[in-house]
Amino acid sequence: MSKRTGACATGFQMLCCEPQGSTSQADTVASCHKQCAPLLGSVQPKSEGQRLYGNCRALCDRKGNVRCPDGRVKPWSNPKC
How many alpha carbons lie under 13 Å from residue 74 in its C-beta half-sphere? Predict the structure, then answer.
């Protein structure tokens, strides 16, 4: 299950916020990556923090894959696990 609230898209075991008001794609990506960084230190175990960080980056960059908690891999464009 996922939902969109304000500028944030949330879903099962993932969170990635896209900033509002960015003027270029580079601004959007850089700001979004900054929002992903805290996942590395705040989510335990470390492997889960790395998985969520990677998912956040894929969603921010709008490319790559999202890894589900059960090990399945989904495209960033359809990340529902």
Answer: 18
CA distance 81 to 78: 9
Domain range for 7 is 3-74
pLDDT in tens, 46-75: 999 999 999 999 998 899 999 999 999 999
Q: Would you say the C-alpha torsion 45, 51, 55, 61 has a positive or negative sign?
A: positive
In a domain, 25, yes or no: yes
Do the beta carbons of residue 70 and residue 80 sit within 8 Å? Answer: no
Quick check: 65 and 76 in contact, CB under 8 A?
yes
